[in-house]
Write a structure and sequence with these properties.
Structural class: alpha/beta
Radius of gyration: 13 Å
Largest sheet: 5 strands, mixed
CATH superfamily: Dinitrogenase iron-molybdenum cofactor biosynthesis domain
Order of helices and strands: EEEHHEHEH
CATH class: Alpha Beta
Number of domains: 1
CATH topology: Nucleotidyltransferase, domain 5
Shape: globular
Oligomer: single chain
CATH architecture: 2-Layer Sandwich
Low-confidence stretches: none
Helix content: 25-40%
Distance between the termini: 40 Å
């Protein structure tokens, strides 16, 4: 079975933060298609970045691409416990064209203490 990649994108399928993206998507690498596209639970249910990660785990993703600023210590811990491969990429790139890398300690530290602006509804 191929990779089921979970990430967060805005309306034009460009990577955006777990906390503010419009959609959570699961991309099936074998079929080369979106298997799931739902409204971002971190925004809709106000569950934050951990809510996004819980949804990825529940949808049986085996890879998560975390846009820069998304991978907090709590999110990393949840993903490691679920044995999900973690990659990081820059925001604003189409998710299929994004250059990914392994997360560094400084990436996780930055994401943990960075404050996201809260959108008013």
């Amino acid at each position: 079975m191929g990779n089921m990649i979970c990430t967060s994108v805005n309306g034009d399928e460009k990577l955006d933060s777990f906390a503010s993206a419009k959609y959570l998507i699961i991309y099936d690498e074998d079929k080369k298609e979106l298997a799931v596209q739902i409204r971002n639970p971190a925004v809709v249910k106000r569950k934050g970045k951990k809510g996004f990660v819980r949804e990825c785990i529940g949808l049986k993703a085996n890879v998560v691409i975390a846009p820069h600023g998304s991978l907090t210590f709590g999110c990393r811990s949840m993903l490691k416990k679920a044995r999900i491969k973690i990659l990081v990429s820059d925001r604003g790139k189409h998710f299929l064209e994004a250059e990914t890398r392994k997360p560094t300690f400084f990436e996780v530290l930055y994401s943990t203490f960075k404050r996201e602006p809260v959108e008013k509804k």
